[in-house]
């Protein structure tokens, strides 16, 4: 039995298109893409946000620590033991870059390399 006897197929509305162009009109009766915009999301609570902030802060502290120590060793290498501290600064710079702190790692690598180059090529002639 038909629950709505007066409603025919001609009264059924088309789904909203929201300005999208219909694709593949040459395939009659086949609509590969949905013309409706659907959104799926998971619920997030305040506890989840606090956990995410804590995890990110811990990762960034560890990443930047290698970079800052590498920069410190590279700067110290300008004054004492340039080869040893310069190489240590370069190694920590590469470790920092591999963990995502690119700027600090690049600075540590450059400063350590400059210190070693100055020691090997300029200081012997001064």
TrEMBL record:
Domain of life: Bacteria
Annotated InterPro entries: YqfX-like
Record's keyword annotation contains Nucleus: no
Chain intervals for the UniProt region annotation (Disordered): 1-41
Transmembrane regions: 66-92, 104-125
Keywords for the protein's UniProt record, in alphabetical order: Membrane, Transmembrane, Transmembrane helix
PANTHER family, per database record: MEMBRANE PROTEIN, SMALL HYDROPHOBIC PROTEIN-RELATED
Record-given protein name: DUF4190 domain-containing protein
Organism per entry: Virgibacillus dokdonensis
Lineage, broadest ranks: Bacteria, Bacillati, Bacillota, Bacilli, Bacillales
């Amino acid at each position: 039995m038909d629950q709505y006897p007066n409603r025919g197929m001609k009264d059924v509305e088309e789904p909203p298109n929201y300005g999208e162009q219909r694709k593949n009109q040459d395939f009659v009766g086949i609509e590969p893409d949905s013309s409706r915009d659907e959104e799926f999301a998971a619920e997030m609570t305040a506890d989840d946000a606090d956990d995410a902030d804590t995890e990110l802060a811990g990762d960034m502290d560890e990443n930047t620590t290698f970079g800052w120590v590498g920069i410190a060793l590279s700067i110290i290498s300008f004054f004492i033991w340039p080869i040893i501290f310069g190489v240590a600064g370069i190694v920590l710079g590469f470790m920092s870059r591999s963990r995502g702190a690119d700027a600090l790692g690049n600075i540590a690598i450059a400063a350590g390399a400059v210190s070693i180059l100055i020691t090997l090529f300029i200081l012997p002639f001064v």
